[in-house]
Give the backbone structure.
Amino acid sequence: MTKRFLRISGIMAMALCYGQLNAQSVAPGPDDVEPDIVGHIVSDSLHVIIQSEDILELLRYEKPQAKPKKQTIVYKVQVFSDNNARTAKNEARSQSHRIAARFPQFRTYVTFTSPYWRLRVGDFATQDEADAAAEQLRRAFPAYNREIRVVREQVRGAK
């Protein structure tokens, strides 16, 4: 075991020495000449950095601020809300299809906000418009009466 260890250690030492000798023997060609930045610095000396104005402009660059999106309050009629993981999604979608078939002028939204699946109808500018739509939905779908209510919602990017 010790002979093997000594052999491996010797090989590694020779490889390390060869790598260092090889790295020191490479001379830069005329195209590979780079300025020696650190070699000329002496402690307690004054250093002057001369650089292009373009570099200073790049350093001054500020990312333009994104304009905040306008948020608008709209009223919607919430027809369904449930947190039953097995049935809520399908129930919200089926009610959405029924309402869209009966009232094509109202847009329906099936959304998931953990843990609830919700079905909301319309984008109404005033609460009175939403109340009138809620009444139409109550008359058309008496089975949904218990859950129909008007809700306020903030919508980003709306006009």
